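tool=predict chain=A
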Amino acid sequence: MSKSKHTGAGGPSLRLLRVGENVRHAISAILARGDVQDPDLERASVSVSEVRVSPDLRNATIFVMPLGGDADGVVTKALNKNAAFLRGAMAKIVNMKFNPKLKFKLDPSFDEASHIESLLKTPKVVEDLAKPDDVEDPLSGEDKGA
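tool=predict ok
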């Protein structure tokens, strides 16, 4: 039997993570140099936060976040429009048997982080965090304040 492409926990293998990281560095370098001749990308500063590669290494989903956001989706559309050029430029940097097809998506983790930050600043949570630790520890049954 062949080895599984995923670890026991259901996550990607180390090989997939390593390939994704190499692709991320290559795409970041290409975008930082400004090699893409697109008016929508010339004035945008794009951060490549994560790359997820499919187990067969044929597809890569690249999560990006333009500086200042991308509410209209202009930058991600421009990146997807120029995906073939970026794939060719990446092939010169990353040595792979197959160069994956690139698909760019807006990274939702930044919105998630700001949502969690806003939840932590709600009055109820702030009140709970400000309470003293004089309460009885439910696991040990001992009073911490004494």
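The CA atoms of residues 22 and 117 lie 31 Å apart. The mean pLDDT is 82.
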